[in-house]
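[09:14] KT: can someone run the structure on this one? pasting the chain below
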Amino acid sequence: MKPKPLSFGVLCLVMAIVPAQAEFLTNFLSLLKGPSATEGIAIPRPISGSGAERVESPAPPESLTEVELPAAGENEPVAGKALSSKSETLQSEHSIPGWDGRRLNILGIDRTDFPDILVLMQVKDHQGLPALQVDLDGFQLTEDEAPQPVFDVGPCTPARYPGEPLSLVLLVDTSGSMQKFIDRVQASIYRFTQKLRDDDQLALVGFCNQPVLITPLTSNKKKMLKGIYRLNPRGFTALYDSLYMGVENLSSCGGRKAIILLTDGKDDDGTGAQLSRTPLNNAIMAAQRSHIPVFTIGLGEEISQSTLEKIADETGGEYLFAPNGADLDDLYSEIASELGRGDEGYYRLTYRATESHKDGSDRTIIIRYEDATAIATYPAPKKLWPF
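[09:31] RB: done, structure tokens below
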């Protein structure tokens, strides 16, 4: 008996079902391979001007204002953030909020257990120090403007939770005058590298008569350690050339990046004249174009404070002062905390999304704590089954 031809309606139904099933089969087979290392983890996409990210750098100004040094005897040197009468003015002029100007930062969002969402955040007190204690009832959270129930907040170590990896360049003065500090510098830098996550990258540049890339960008901590102990002080100080080299090494990197510059002097060829071929303003503008904040550490009494403050202020970094090498551990720890690699002031917040559909849409969350606000977006998971 001859089989009956398929009706037109049946043919249409088959044509509609087969492609959908094929797509489902592809997705199902990919699941059998096992989850990737980052499955379920969403890197937050902060919204400009929200306080959750550094805003875009404006075009460099035609004239750059020098920061005035305090009159002799006005302030005794102490380790930490240097005070300047013009630092706030410079900050507003260039519209770059310093890393220490934000009290609440969203570092990562984990949607593995969606609709339960875990948010990794950094919280500071009104003095800009890590908040050692927070109040669960003080947090308010909205997702796409709808209030969400926050049911847990607790301290955590960032290295154990999702977040964007860092790319860093350490610029270390290796001029002859650094000989008396070098042992403490090496020990402090080593301890700093131990705070980094396994997926963070770090490069090391030593600079004296010219900058030298000692360790290219690497996540291998053994290579970092080997480079640290190759620092050998001699010669003069090509500071601006080293800053430019640091920017070049990071300019092609994605994600979060920063430069940490340590010096005990100023750009000098031994006669008081500038040694670097790169003008200071050009090095600063290169960092601005690549959106790289520069943290500067002035070590000892022979530094050019105005220069180091200018570099930090105009790139969105921070200037710190160490009267002697004994203070370096604390200053590098403070920078690690600013970059999300410290030991205190980090919390994980868990809430349940009231919109629980796995539709793949971007969700905007706003977290408020006291007078601080942070904003970020994450993509909701997308359901694989096509029907």
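[09:33] KT: thanks! The domain at 80-97+164-338 is CATH 3.40.50.410 (Rossmann fold).
[09:34] RB: yep, looked fine to me
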